[in-house]
Design brief:
heterodimer, A: Rossmann fold, seven-stranded mixed sheet, five-stranded mixed sheet, B: alpha/beta, two-stranded antiparallel sheet, about 40% helix, globular, binds thiamine diphosphate, binds magnesium ion
Chain lengths: ~325, ~375
């Protein structure tokens, strides 16, 4: 099987979707000749033409709104927002239109669109290029929010997002765009959009994360194993909707849970998971649910970004704490 | 240009004209009727020096980036006249709202080179610059500074202060609603704000013609109810003259103005970009003939006001200043991790004291 990085897997999925379905169009800033600033769309304009791979004027609100109009017409637009820090103007279109066009018209008009954006810290990028605002988006009813953490899941989840009849935000962790190569079979097979992935089985504690933070989370699990603690690691992969049953089943087994995310702590998606466990899994808990997150501070510029992001040490320390709890 | 549909039978209800300002040509010769300051050789030399310093600084910044000692950096190679010309027309008490392409303007306004390096090196102290107290930090989210400029100008107007907000952006920025919205309100409220668009023909890989079908960017002012003009953005005399006029009018209560400075991005978009992917080296090569420094130097040489020795002295002086700034930047240790809470609020709410304490522990470790 051929190997691909995460960003190459995104490219493969886009190419596959465009080849399979003439209604799929790509749009965004620099997605054409340049192939996107991260090269996610490289080669697609020359292959599918500039009518289907559109270099838009510089406006994120435009990209979001164009997608809504195109989708209502039955096209399957895949918009690219260059960095999550520039995503915010799209929230108007997502919250007021994309997420509710179906509902407003009782299904007469629908919105099968995808907005992709690289996100997250750790690549020493300039100001406004390292944000993780996934919880803000997951708060919008009617949207799907998907975050891949490996090349194969990026491929399968992106195909699913494009084929889905509703609007999907697809967030790509820049820090692991090229971190690993993994086998990706370009077989056109999509993954389900609301099923979590158990990346490592364990008995003592459940570690839940998504996106780039799974690297540190898996490393922490390794460290804990050396100390005799068996951690189960779950890649949530889809935040909205998310796989509550997988979370509850794991916590029922381990009785302990640590949630890890890069985004700020207050109102982060970890809070949602912790609340769900409190509501539906309290009886199986042997210790409080802990969160290891970014701080409630403005995302610092690169010199301090490592201090902001959860480290293997912080994750392992939280896991030890819940394992020692009695 | 797209020929607009027009029914010739109907009466004309509006007409507009646009003018283009240019004095110092690529040939190093003054044309037309240059402003009075063009005969002030000392002033011209100071403009030349500022542009040369900007270029030397950019070179050093790129060298630091290439050796892993600076983050992504955007040079303004070939666009120095836009920044220097505009900033040199401002008064100290005016407020500059720059984009990331306006290093030359920030330097002219008194931001230190080591501060600019700190910013691009990933340290917030770069934005806490010591020079122009009320200038905004450069804006990375494209065009987001345009409405700030209108807000700043509104405050000037409300307080009846004879000050002007100067908003700098690129051609790509004119595609954002933000810019139109800011200009629209500036027109409505007749605000003392000058918008300067450095039209360097590219927004990363997207050429100017894909941004807008509008014949010029300057004409966007007309729909907002105020004046605009195109200037040769590689002619520092024209940029300064245009900005001076616009500032004087704004200061006198005549409202906003838009200057489209025609220039060309001779470098990559940033150090993270590779422009060879989307434009030909021939195109870039041809544009080198128009760059702003050579023409001003040629003019001054023609006037016998500048010579080989001056040039050499300037080069070594720029080099020394840039090296000193780099050394000072490199010798600045990072801030303590807990400092990310120092300026989050006027006073850190009780709720976050624990998080700060956790980071204080981290810095001790
Ligand atoms: C709102 C927003 N969208 C996207 C970006 C990414 N980006 C940075 S610069 C740039 C192009 C800007 O072009 P222009 O306004 O012409 O300024 P120039 O870089 O040419 O000086 C883009 C798309 C950004 N910084 N802000
Ligand atoms: Mg530009």
């Amino acid at each position: 099987m051929p190997e691909a990085t995460l960003v190459e897997a995104v490219n493969l999925a886009l190419a596959r979707a465009m080849a399979d379905d003439p209604d799929v169009v790509l749009l965004g800033e620099d997605v054409g000749v340049n192939g996107g600033v991260f090269r996610a769309t490289v080669g697609l304009q020359s292959r599918f033409g500039s009518d289907r791979v559109i270099d838009t004027p510089l406006s994120e609100a435009l990209i979001g709104g164009l997608c809504v109009g195109m989708a209502a017409q039955g096209l399957k637009p895949v918009g690219e927002i260059q960095f999550m820090g520039f995503f915010y103007p799209c929230i108007d279109q997502l919250a007021n239109h994309a997420s509710r066009l179906r509902n407003r018209t009782l299904g007469r008009l629908t919105c099968p669109m995808v907005l992709r954006a690289p996100f997250g810290a750790g690549i020493r990028a300039p100001e406004h290029h390292s944000e993780s605002a996934e919880a803000m988006l997951a708060h919008i009813p009617g949207l799907r929010v998907v975050i891949p953490s490996s090349p194969d899941r990026a491929y399968g989840l992106l195909l699913a997002a494009i084929r889905d009849p509703d609007p999907v935000v697809f967030l790509e962790p820049t820090r692991i765009y090229r971190a690993v190569k993994a086998e990706v079979e370009d077989n056109g097979e999509a993954l389900p959009l609301d099923v979590a992935f158990v990346l490592r089985e364990g008995r003592d504690v459940t570690l839940i994360s998504w996106g780039a933070m799974l690297r540190e989370t898996l490393a922490a699990a390794e460290e804990l194993a050396a100390e005799g603690m068996s951690a189960e690691v779950i890649d949530l992969a889809t935040l909205k909707p998310y796989d509550e049953e997988a979370v509850l089943a794991s916590v029922a087994k381990t009785g302990r849970c640590v949630i890890v995310h890069e985004a700020a702590r207050t109102g982060g998606f970890g809070a949602e998971i912790a609340a769900c466990i409190a509501e539906r899994g309290l009886a199986s808990l042997l210790a409080p649910v802990l969160r290891v997150t970014g701080y409630d501070a403005v995302m610092p510029l690169p010199r301090l970004e490592q201090s902001y992001m959860p480290s293997v040490e912080r994750i392992a320390a939280a896991a030890r704490k819940v394992c020692a709890y009695n | 240009m797209n020929k607009p549909f027009m029914d010739e039978e109907l009466p004309v209800i509006a007409r507009f004209e646009l003018r283009r300002r240019a004095y110092l040509g690529p040939d190093g010769v003054l044309h037309g009727r240059p402003p009075a300051f063009a005969s002030n050789v000392d002033l011209l030399i100071s403009l030349l020096r500022a542009m040369a310093l900007t270029r030397a600084f950019d070179l050093k910044a790129v060298a630091l980036q290439r050796t892993g000692r600076l983050g992504t950096y955007p040079v303004s190679l070939g666009e120095e006249a836009v920044s220097v010309g505009a900033a040199s027309a401002m008064r100290e008490e005016d407020v500059l709202l720059p984009s990331y392409r306006n290093t030359g303007a920030q330097l002219w306004r008194g931001v230190k080179m080591e501060e600019i390096l700190l910013f691009w090196g990933g340290d917030e102290r770069g934005n806490a610059f010591s020079g122009p107290k009320q200038d905004f930090p450069l804006s990375i989210p494209v065009a987001s500074q345009t409405s700030h400029a209108a807000g700043v100008a509104y405050a000037f107007k409300l307080r009846k202060e004879p000050r002007v907000a100067v908003c700098m952006s690129g051609d790509g920025a004119t595609s954002k609603g933000d810019m139109w919205e800011a200009m629209n309100f500036a027109g409505v409220a007749k605000l003392p704000v000058v918008f300067i668009v450095g039209n360097n023909q590219w927004a990363i890989s997207v050429p100017r013609k894909l941004q807008t079908a509008s014949e010029t960017l300057a004409q966007k002012a007309i729909a907002a109810g105020f004046g605009g003009e195109q200037v040769d953005g590689n002619d520092v005399i024209a940029v300064r003259a245009a900005t001076e006029r616009a500032l004087a009018a704004a200061r006198a209560g005549e409202g906003p103005f838009l200057i489209e400075a025609l220039t060309y991005r001779l470098g990559d978009h940033t150090t993270a970009d590779d422009a060879a992917r989307y434009r030909s080296p021939e195109e870039v090569q041809a544009r080198w003939k128009e760059e702003p420094i050579a023409r001003l130097r040629a003019y001054l040489v023609g006037k016998k006001a500048w010579g080989k020795e001056d040039e050499e002295r300037l080069a070594s002086e720029c080099q020394a200043r840039v090296e000193a700034a780099a050394a000072s930047y490199l010798a600045t240790p990072p801030r303590a991790p807990s400092s990310m809470f120092d300026h989050l609020y006027a006073e850190l709410p009780h709720a976050y004291l624990g998080q700060r304490r956790e980071l204080e522990g981290a810095s001790d470790a």
